[in-house]
Amino acid sequence: MKSTITIEYCPKCGWLLRAAWIAQELLTTFTDDLHAVQLVPSEVAGRYTVHLNETLLWDRKREGRFPEPKELKQRVRDVIDPERSLGHSDR
């Protein structure tokens, strides 16, 4: 069964474009592994979280910043296919 990534973002903070960009990066890298990437507007101000199925991969408040695409791709890979090479994203 393919995985679903959910990006919950604060629309009042203007983070839709960031969430869409990250969704595009993940869909491009994990074309055959993902069922979907969902963009969910949060009702909680300042929220930006990324879940892979039920696993929390990133929480902006906990990490203190937004994820770089490279590190988020590595976290997704580590869950769905730890042996997979991400090419330049592994360097």
Features:
single chain; 91 residues; alpha+beta; Glutaredoxin; 4 strands; globular; Selenoprotein_Rdx-typ; redox-active center; SelT/SelW/SelH family protein; Thioredoxin-like_sf
Question: What do you see in this structure?
Answer:
This is SelT/SelW/SelH family protein. Keywords: Redox-active center. InterPro entries: Selenoprotein_Rdx-typ (IPR011893), Thioredoxin-like_sf (IPR036249). With 91 residues, the chain is α+β, with helices and mostly antiparallel strands. It has one domain: Glutaredoxin (3-Layer(aba) Sandwich). The protein is built from 3 helices and 4 strands; from the N terminus they run E-H-E-E-E-H-H. It has helices at 16-29, 60-63, 69-80, and strands at 3-9, 34-41, 48-52, 55-59. Strands 2-1-3-4 form a 4-stranded mixed sheet. The N and C termini lie far apart (29 Å). The model has no long low-confidence stretch (mean pLDDT 93).
CATH-assigned homologous superfamily: Glutaredoxin
* Major beta sheet, strand line-up: 2-1-3-4
Can you tell me the CATH class?
Alpha Beta
What is the count of DSSP helices, taking H or I runs of 4+ residues? 3
| Low-confidence region ranges | none
Q: Note the main sheet.
A: 4 strands, mixed
CATH architecture assignment name: 3-Layer(aba) Sandwich
User: H/E element string?
Assistant: EHEEEHH
How many strands? Answer: 4
Global morphology: globular
Q: Find the structural class using helix and strand composition.
A: alpha+beta
- Any idea of the CATH topology? Glutaredoxin
Q: Please state roughly what percent of the residues sit in beta strands, choosing from under 5%, 5-15%, 15-25%, 25-35%, 35-45% or over 45%.
A: 25-35%
Overall mean pLDDT score?
A: 93
Radius of gyration: 13 Å
State the share of residues found in helices, binned by percent.
25-40%
Number of domains: 1
Give the N-terminus to C-terminus distance in angstroms.
Answer: 29 Å
